[in-house]
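Hey everyone, long-time lurker, first post.

I ran two proteins through the pipeline my lab uses and got sequence/structure pairs for each. Pasting them in order. The first:
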Amino acid sequence: MSDDVTDRDYCLVGTDRPPEADGPPYAACVLCQEPTEYPESYKGITLCPVCEWREAERTSCSG
C-alpha cells in the first residue's frame, strides 16, 4: 500500500450538512418525523440528531 493513502481514501461518507435553522418551523426527520435542527424550507434529506447519529454509526468505516 502506498504511503500517501489516508483514511479519507477509504471513508467516503458525505459530510455536507444543511444549514441550521434560526428557529421554528423546523423540518421533520425523514425517518422518524421528529423535528430536526434544519429549516422547514430546506430541500433534501433531513435527519433529527438521533437518526443522524444512528446513520453515522451504520455507515462508519471499520478499521
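...and the second, right after it:
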Amino acid sequence: MATFGKIEAHVDPSEAGKEFPVKTHVMFTIRGESQTGFVTKQLRNAAVIEIDEKQDNGDLINQSNGVVVINYKQMKKI
C-alpha cells in the first residue's frame, strides 16, 4: 500500500517516556482540569493521548478531536 510520501520513523522516547508505553491509562491536567486517557503514540518528550469522554469534557473533545499531546512529566499512570 502506498504511503504517499509519509515516512514513519521510529521514535525512541526519553527516559521519562519509557514509563508510558502505548495503551497506558494516564491522568493529566489540561486547561486547569484533570483529564484521563490512553497513550496512542509515543514521541521523544511527549505522547499523543486519546482523551476519555466524560459528561463534562464534551467541549474539549470537540475542540481537540479527542486527542492531545502531553509532556511525559505532566502525566501520571492510573
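Reply from user beta_strand_b:
Welcome! Quick read of the second one: The first strand starts at residue 25 and ends at 30. The two ends are 37 Å apart (CA to CA).
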